[in-house]
Amino acid sequence: MGLSQTRATNGHVSRGKPTIIDVAQHAGVSKSLVSLALRGSSGVKPETRQHILNVAQELGYRSNTWARNLAQGRSGMIGILLNDLSSAYHTDIAQGIEAAATTVGLSAILTHGHRDEEALSARLGHMQDLGADGIIVVSAALNPQHLATAAARLPIVVVGRPAAVPDTVGSVWNNDELGARLAVEHLAGLGHTRIAHLSGSPRPASRARLASFHTTMTDLALPEPHQVFHGPHALVHAMGDPATARTAPTAVFASNDRRAAKLHAAALDAGLRIPEDLAIVGYDNTELATLLRPQLTSIDQPRHEMGQRALHMLVDMLGGQPPRRDVVEPRLIARGSTIPNSA
Amino acid sequence: MGLSQTRATNGHVSRGKPTIIDVAQHAGVSKSLVSLALRGSSGVKPETRQHILNVAQELGYRSNTWARNLAQGRSGMIGILLNDLSSAYHTDIAQGIEAAATTVGLSAILTHGHRDEEALSARLGHMQDLGADGIIVVSAALNPQHLATAAARLPIVVVGRPAAVPDTVGSVWNNDELGARLAVEHLAGLGHTRIAHLSGSPRPASRARLASFHTTMTDLALPEPHQVFHGPHALVHAMGDPATARTAPTAVFASNDRRAAKLHAAALDAGLRIPEDLAIVGYDNTELATLLRPQLTSIDQPRHEMGQRALHMLVDMLGGQPPRRDVVEPRLIARGSTIPNSA
DNA sequence: GAACAACTGTGGAACGTTCCACAAATGACA
DNA sequence: TGTCATTTGTGGAACGTTCCACAGTTGTTC
């Protein structure tokens, strides 16, 4: 009839990317059988399967993800939502998640929200639209309300201490109370009594560290007042001011490494010696801690392991199990910022 | 007939997530009209549109991405492939891309390949399967071959100097030759003559910096041999060894900040003064540069802008324009690691 | 008030898979 | 050789959209 395109027996016109139907026609079987063969079903005669595989191979066939997901109603893909892409702490966790995901045959996609609640919510919605089977939220300052509504639709695991945990979401975090205690005890064990805390944002993890700082100070019967600072300069200034120098701290536990590094810099700028004039403990044990001189004593969280645990919890939840609450133990890594003569 | 599910007029059984058909039925119109209304087509009477929007809203309808993509054959989504998630340099570029993507109404998904070529290729394929309309590859050590075959299917832009650029892919990079020249000239301007280079991996950007180091040294008529080191300790050792100390470098241009920071630490560990005994220039001007003491002089690349440019190029390519080659200019940020008494 | 154009709205066929209820072929057994 | 079970393979209906060719409805104009 003078048709300009390749018209095959069945009325299917082949053009553009090869589809399962193209494979079927070239192999002389039905599309259903191709589908079965490609997915490794048992009810296909080995030789036919091999034949189909060959044809698919030489046609350069790749299954269309959209069509597959639409038909199956699932995607085999999980979403990772990071609060902040520029935080090494967050990205390390993400890598732990991905490594674990790969081993169980799930693929992962990543997004982040620039530490902004609005952006984070939008991203969360976007990942759902994209069809993630489950989502792991890393340390995100997400509205618990949003979290809960999302959790009603698909499994969600939060890594990092959430504000208020709806019990429909799983969670993995490190024992901030223990971490803060380790830091203070370490400093007290070195003879410090005027130990201050350099506190962070009002986020749950920081708050927990702050609270534990107080209770540990009390438990160790260290002298009141327990000083809490919010910026490195205020602290350094207090040490330099004759009016306050006598009561100024000799040691500081900072709520994270980045903050500790800023204090480290400010102290050196002020001509203070570390650790002789001021001992510093950070939190997170990021690479930064090993690049400063003296190196930074820090509380280590097993980030990679936390990511793995989160993924496994998510997999369990995908399998219908209820969410859990998983708390891992941090440990202290002693370095030169508290121990003299150790680099 | 005793059916157990809500059976609607048309034979459509409503269950689970609401579909466009549910909206149509509740609004008393056809699914086609709902589709038109939701996508803001002009041929819909304003009141009906509003009515449909209301119904969709109260049903909590969200369009199914898979079905939409399948029907439209495009996704409105671009992929960002990072070489390494833990590099601040890479993630900053990614953020520039995303910011720009948001302004033009594209959404972006992120993946990365742990600096591993195999993993990177797999991710590239995965993003194509996922239906990205275009992909921006950030600094990835991807086989040019793979890049080319991918570029045959969809627009690709590479940020960072690629090994060999197939001219079917767009690219954005910083002028490494100029960057290296700025570094060497800065050090020479401060009176240094024995300037060494701390070189990086054999990747294109590092190689370009190395080459430009040599030509600039020659142009400035600085004494041979032009020393190149591959590890901080070799360099510090050379300075400490009486046999080589007399000819050892007094200044170093390192191929990136991280490497510079390690040298910085090694130098301090060896009791050297920075910049008096050893001046250091890094590359990338990451936050790390401002946290060290003394702070690190570094070559700044406009990472955010590079990301934006990459995205705009990709958008142009999606619109059918040919790929371009875009080179941006770096500048030197002078700090205490080269200038005495400046923190 | 007939003819025609401009608006609004509709139904059904894609899109490329999977899933399900069957059909056809093969083999086993009496 | 007929019966029945098992293995292989098939066709068509989903999945939830968009797109296209049309069908109704209004309004305008002579």
Describe this structure in words.
The structure is a homodimer of 343-residue chains. By secondary structure, the first copy, chain A, is of the alpha/beta class. Chain A has three domains: 7-63, lambda repressor-like DNA-binding domains (434 Repressor (Amino-terminal Domain), Orthogonal Bundle), CATH 1.10.260.40; 75-174 and 303-329, 3-Layer(aba) Sandwich (Rossmann fold); 176-301, Response regulator (Rossmann fold), CATH 3.40.50. Chain A has 14 helices and twelve strands. Chain A has helices spanning 20-27, 31-38, 46-59, 65-72, 88-103, 117-130, 144-151, 176-189, 204-219, 232-240, 242-245, 257-269, 288-291, 303-318, and strands spanning 77-82, 107-112, 134-138, 156-159, 170-174, 195-198, 228-229, 251-254, 279-284, 297-300, 325-328, 331-333. In chain A, strands 2-1-3-4-5-11 form a six-stranded parallel β-sheet, with helices on both faces. Chain A has a six-stranded mixed β-sheet with strand order 7-6-8-9-10-12, with helices on both faces. In chain A, helix 1 (20-27) crosses helix 3 (46-59) and helix 10 runs parallel beside helix 12. The longest helix of chain A is centred in the N-terminal third of the chain and has 16 residues, at 88-103. Chain A is elongated. The model of chain A is unreliable at 1-10 (pLDDT under 50). The interface between A and B is large, with 40 and 39 residues. The structure holds a DNA duplex (30 and 30 nucleotides).
